[in-house]
């Protein structure tokens, strides 16, 4: 028996693939337009197709917008015509996502062998590979397989037909009118068209993901974010307990929404304490959405109703007046940073007001700018806690940059920070040149001080220890609004801000974390202001705020 191994994400099946398969399935092996010499006997015919659906455990991104089960439905419909007309057997096998590797072809073959309990051992002596990706053609060729290159022309090193991902992009560009485009209808197989007709959420999700201005192709906010590091900060029990205690007393039961829920760690606590509420998590990124769904599968939310959506928080998600508590835990600064800054954040707050029920609340826990953020401060930084040489060393990857930053003194790390802060945003045109950190150094009574805006000092102080995600964190702004402005912004959209010093657990407040002071600032950073001819110390700024506001 000779097999045809057809690996790919199989987001769509095309007319070209359909016609190509009909042609190659009718002939003997020696008549096929193969790259490389086949080890399959020349007079054999292909009698079985193995569809290896790669990145089967991935969804919710431009790169993989369609879940495996929906790809399987479409692929089954596509394959049935070859079973009916040519007597062809077929298997559909999901291959998990692997980071780019030169052993991907080998991993795919091993996964097929394991998933079939050793029954399907594909090797050059019994299998031809259908693949149009040049790097994978090379990998399978090195393993001894002969290749049918489909859309790819080995001689010209170009493509003779549109690839599936090109057609997905065409759908995204056509928007809601994609179905009326004759060119698209002639490119897509009948099986794909029928599946999309029966499951209209498939094209809807493709359009939503491809239109989202905040996501990268892989479904992330940035290209180099370390999600394991972020997840530790979001779900470490001790850290999350502190965050939850900050807001627990302000939450109204009913329909509770955690907007920007990361990996769902906060919702575990909400489900425990509010078992009769309906809890909805909203998350933008593909990685954290998958982690949320894994918590749901594992039963971490008990008997509480919990549901997750992958959505852009800038969209209007809920009906007006339907949410009892909206929680924004460390999300508002990301909306400001990655979208349209003040315009975006104000529009977001207006939408939160509309979705909030009467007597409902919005609860925001996030970083905050210092009072007097545009004033000039004097910052004294340690030079004894690391090295000060080769500050601007070029590092090839995130890990080497982390190791380099860890060797620098606090003073040297600031110099690197001043160069890197918002640099990627300026390079992409999302920030202007006036966002660069401007500073000068002066000596006073034998001490060296960095003189800069208070806001810029706080941006450094709150980011200097994020060496795991340096480039990603330095795309973000923390200190854009001080606490009084935050309260004013909520009032402007209609909320009533709750403040009660006698009951802080259920009201608005800004505070300085003792842990941050002891572990990140003391002995490393000191702040001063010049008053007359003296340099006088000032207290450390607030690290966090909790805003509680109600719709009356």
How would you describe this protein?
The protein is α/β, with parallel strands linked by helices. The chain is globular. The longest helix is centred in the first third of the chain and has 19 residues, at 68-86. Strands 8, 9, 10, 11, 12, 16, 17 and 20 form an eight-stranded mixed sheet that branches. Strands 3-2-1-4-5 form a five-stranded parallel sheet, sandwiched between helices. Strands 14-15-13-18-19 form a five-stranded antiparallel sheet. It has 21 helices and 20 strands. Helix 4 links the parallel strand 4 (127-130) and strand 5.
Query: Quick one: biggest sheet?
Result: 8 strands, mixed
> From the alpha-carbon coordinates, what is the Rg to the nearest angstrom?
28 Å
Runs in which pLDDT lies below 50 for 5 or more consecutive residues are: 215-223
Structural category is alpha/beta
Average pLDDT number: 93
Question: Can you count the helices?
Answer: 21
Estimated share of beta-strand residues: 15-25%
| Proportion in helices | 25-40%
How many individual β-strands?
Answer: 20
Q: Label the overall shape.
A: globular
- State the end-to-end distance: 73 Å
Characteristic key phrases:
21 helices; 38% helix; alpha/beta; 552 residues; eight-stranded mixed β-sheet; five-stranded parallel β-sheet
């Amino acid at each position: 028996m000779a097999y045809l191994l057809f690996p790919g994400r199989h987001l769509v099946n095309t007319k070209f693939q359909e016609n190509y398969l009909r042609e190659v399935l009718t002939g003997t092996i020696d008549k096929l337009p193969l790259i490389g010499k086949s080890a399959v006997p020349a007079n054999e015919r292909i009698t079985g197709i193995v569809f290896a659906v790669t990145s089967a455990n991935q969804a919710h991104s431009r790169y993989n917008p369609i879940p495996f089960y929906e790809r399987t439905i479409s692929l089954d419909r596509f394959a049935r015509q070859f079973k009916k007309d040519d007597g062809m057997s077929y298997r559909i096998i999901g291959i998990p996502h692997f980071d780019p590797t030169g052993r991907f072809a080998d991993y795919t073959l091993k996964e097929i062998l394991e998933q079939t309990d050793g029954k399907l051992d594909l090797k050059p002596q019994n299998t031809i590979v259908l693949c149009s990706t040049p790097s994978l053609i090379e990998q399978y060729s090195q393993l001894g397989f002969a290749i049918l290159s489909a859309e790819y022309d080995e001689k010209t090193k170009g493509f003779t037909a549109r690839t599936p991902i090109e057609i997905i992009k065409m759908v995204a560009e056509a928007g809601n009118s994609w179905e009326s485009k004759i060119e698209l209808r002639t490119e897509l197989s009948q099986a794909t068209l029928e599946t999309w007709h029966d499951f209209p959420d498939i094209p809807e999700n493709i359009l939503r993901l491809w239109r989202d201005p905040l996501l990268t192709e892989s479904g992330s906010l940035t290209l180099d974010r370390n999600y394991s590091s972020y997840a530790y900060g979001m779900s470490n029990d001790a850290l999350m307990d502190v965050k939850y205690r900050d807001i627990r007393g302000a939450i109204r039961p009913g329909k509770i929404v955690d907007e920007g829920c990361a990996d769902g760690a906060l919702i575990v606590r909400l489900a425990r304490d509010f078992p009769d509420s309906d809890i909805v998590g909203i998350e933008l990124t593909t990685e954290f959405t998958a982690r949320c769904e894994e918590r749901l599968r594992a039963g971490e939310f008990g008997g509480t109703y919990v549901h997750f959506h992958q959505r852009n928080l800038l969209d209007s998600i809920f009906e007006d007046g339907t949410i009892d508590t909206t929680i924004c835990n460390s999300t508002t600064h990301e909306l400001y940073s990655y979208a349209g800054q003040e315009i975006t954040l104000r529009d977001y707050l207006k939408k939160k007001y509309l979705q909030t029920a009467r007597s409902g609340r919005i609860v925001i826990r996030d970083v905050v700018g210092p009072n007097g953020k545009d004033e000039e401060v004097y910052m004294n930084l340690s030079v004894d806690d690391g090295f000060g040489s080769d500050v601007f060393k070029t590092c090839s990857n995130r890990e080497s940059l982390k190791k380099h930053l860890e060797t620098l003194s606090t003073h040297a790390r600031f110099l690197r920070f001043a160069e890197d802060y918002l640099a990627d945003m300026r390079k992409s045109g999302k920030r202007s040149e006036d966002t660069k950190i401007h500073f000068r150094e002066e000596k006073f009574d034998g001490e060296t001080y960095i003189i800069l805006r208070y806001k810029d000092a706080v941006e450094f102080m709150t980011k200097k220890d994020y060496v795991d995600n340096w480039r990603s964190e330095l795309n973000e702004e923390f200190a854009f609004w001080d606490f009084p402005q935050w309260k004013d912004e909520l009032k402007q959209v209609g909320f009533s801000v709750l403040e009660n010093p006698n009951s802080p657990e259920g009201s608005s407040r800004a505070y300085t974390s003792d842990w941050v002071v002891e572990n990140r600032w003391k002995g490393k950073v000191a702040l001063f202001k010049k008053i007359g001819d003296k340099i006088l110390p000032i207290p450390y700024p607030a690290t966090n705020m909790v805003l509680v506001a109600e719709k009356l």
